[in-house]
Queue: 3 jobs
Job 1
Amino acid sequence: MVSKLKSANASAAGQITSRSPRQIAWRRFRRNKVGMVSAGISIVVLMLSLFAPVVCKILGINPDELNLDLIDSSGIPTLPNGGISWEHPLGLTPGIGRDLLANLLYGSRISFLVAFLTTGLAIFIGLIVGIVGGYFRGRIDDYLGRFTDFLLAFPAFFMIVALSEPMVARIQETGIAQGNGARVIFLIFFLSFFGWPGFSRLVRSQVLSLRERDFVTAAQAMGASRKRIIFKELMPNLWAPVIVVVSLSLPGYLAAEAVFSFLGIGIQPPATTWGILLDNARRFVTVYPNFFLITAGSLVLVVLAFNLVGDALRDALDPRSER
């Protein structure tokens, strides 16, 4: 009897396994059905964008092919439903008759490029500034804090609109890039320049709390250098807010690129982005609403999916979450 009880206790103890914070967060995230579906949509969209040439080749569509014979004198496709068929799954763009699906796929590549590079640069700057200010405090924190306040006081949108043309011209004069390449550099630089202050505030508050924890005090008592404390003790404990901010910043910068391209201060034709497609759809919205609805719906779907993933990650990484 005693041996049976011991074996039962041993088997029960063997079934109890410890979970790391990462495993707990993943378990919470899997329980969020909306977050899982949104993550699946986001991954599919990213893969379609990344492999746009392969997808277009498989479907037999070409973003540069003009189907002028299928467009009437007013620029509207003559085929039913805007040309939606097996040959053109989402129809044709008015005016020049290009395949809409191919243009959406190729246009998303530039939009995602701007969004990812801007997010990475803004997160990197905000992380460094927040850690330095929160850890060293004193005058360094005061100077960085006042500079952050100064940037937050600027109307970023109007600054980008006002400086777009002179800054793009200056980039072209230096020979760094020409045409749309200069406009991409301008958008990435200015969006990230005005995007990091908010994140640095979040990082600073986290570092101010972490630097008072026992593991940091123990590292200091053992003679660990500041470099080791920052990179080995503080940064590994900041990955949760970084992941959440990244997931929420990507859709914001994706929509921002579309807005600036729509206003004519971002990427310009003949390149294609979702903002340019929306601008073209605006001119035909009354006579050909399919074009506008499909383009705007695609942008809304992608931005919404990324936002829902960010919300799900925030709930999963929150230790006080009930999910």
Note: The chain has one domain: 39-69+83-317.
Job 2
Amino acid sequence: MPVTKSTIPAKARPLPPGVYCPVISLYKSTKTQEIDHDAMYKHCQYLVRGGLHGLVYQGTNGEAILLNPEEKKDVLRTVRKAVTELGLPDYPIVAGISAQSTNESIQLAKDAYEAGASFALLLPPSFWAKSVSEEALLGFYRDVADESPLPVVCYNFPGVTAGIDLNSDDLSALASHPNIVGVKLTCGNVGKAVRLTSKFSPEQFSVYGGSSDFLFPTLEAGGVGCVTGLANVFPRSTAHIYDLWIQDKKDAARKLQEVVANAEWACKKSLSLTKFGVGHFVGKRIGLTDPKTFNPRRPYLPPNEKMQKWTIDVMSVLVEEENSIPERALKGAQAVNGTK
């Protein structure tokens, strides 16, 4: 018996398909670790030139919980300037708006809109996890989406929300909201992705994997892309899996997926290893030579020497592939990996 397809309308502003990077935050080498906007600008342009289809700021990899509201707005202004000066003023910028209260999430959505973001990414509340009933959970998303000037993407990551997991029934219910356009499944549940894509077209409700190590399976299951921390280090390779797949070069996409999955293992261990990987493999390319730029914000610590070596060994499997893929050709770019 075939699955009943949803008849909800297509969304007015769906999130474009492809590979998105949840961009790390970069800091100055001071005691208070102020945001280094020059570094953020350079890294942003590097990622766009690497062929990524969109960028996410102030998510988990962006250490959103460690940034204050003014810092969040300033970063979004910086990166909107960076993509505009590459000749891509409408490039998708997704802003994390996750907070523990409905009111704060709505305010973050409004702030992000004013600062130049195009979409919003929202975790479920989790401060009192046992009190987050299905009614409270669905009400939270609907209330925020009602007031948000940006289309909302649900963000499911039980590892950072005290185990709260948006299941396929929850997400199917939320998909009917006109301002909720998709989901990022960092839970890694491909079965959940299949259940959702069997009911909804991407225009109705888009499904994205939460990392690139299962991008190929996500696409095969009907998903439309992923949001991957590894793209901070290897933007070309991660984006290229998607590009090969949509060109129907599935054997090549599958082979690249295998290498990417092995490199991403380092990102699974901790954010500090992802940030170290950016510093090691990308820093010199974009003129950022101070390793402290890539440290986590205090109280979190950079990796020790043993884990640094391990990260280099694990990620190095992707270096040759990354270097073989050309950068995105851009017309009318006004800057090249640097602030004007």
Note: Confidence is low (pLDDT under 50) at residues 335-340.
Job 3
Amino acid sequence: MFTSEGPTLRELAVQALSSVERGYDLLAPKFDLTPYRTPDRVLDAVTRALRPLGPFAAGLDVCCGTGAGAGVLRQVCDERVTGVDFSAGMLAAGRSALAGDDRSAAGPAVHWVRADALALPFAPAFDVALSLGAFGHFLPRERPVLFAQVYASLRPGGRFVFPVGAPPAVGSRVYWSLLGFDMAMRVRNALWRPAFVMYYRTFPLPDVLDDLAGAGFTVRLLPLTELGSRPDGSPRARMVVATRE
């Protein structure tokens, strides 16, 4: 799963025993060399699904990390892109990583803002907000606050978009892997402080859709067909499109 240039087992252990913010500050220089970075095929699928929903002037990458989502937004936004994250290390890595991303080199510059996604410091100034791979860092009770903050940052008609994968089949290897990871994290957080909030099974789509509606969004789902289909023919991934009417 990890390349020879990626983080060592010791570095991962130190990160896992830190707070979320400190852990990502430590991991940031090697984050893009880990499996945690959103794969290019997912980025490409999201980019293609976003283009017909535009045009967009201003885009916001929520919990931007090293800027994978900002790279997508540079391809679909005409005027400006902002990445927001609470890890200074990840923001620094994002500045460096995006500077060498040829796929998005023609897009607008990215402005990097350090802030908590539960207290976004923005007026309603964005046409589209995107988030990739960050929702496991929020407990279910925090989700309505997060969605309300994104809603308040969007202009009327603005879209909040993010991909979601189909849940793994009960009893499959992936199912047991995710369940085991979440159980290990709960034990870790019960025994060790500061807590490191990262769970894979706390973002069920029905609850997410309810929370988006509660924040004021109108929601629809777009299949990301190029990411494949399940044995029953349903898509392996969809893109949630939540609109501030």
Note: The chain has two domains: 1-36, 39-167+204-244.
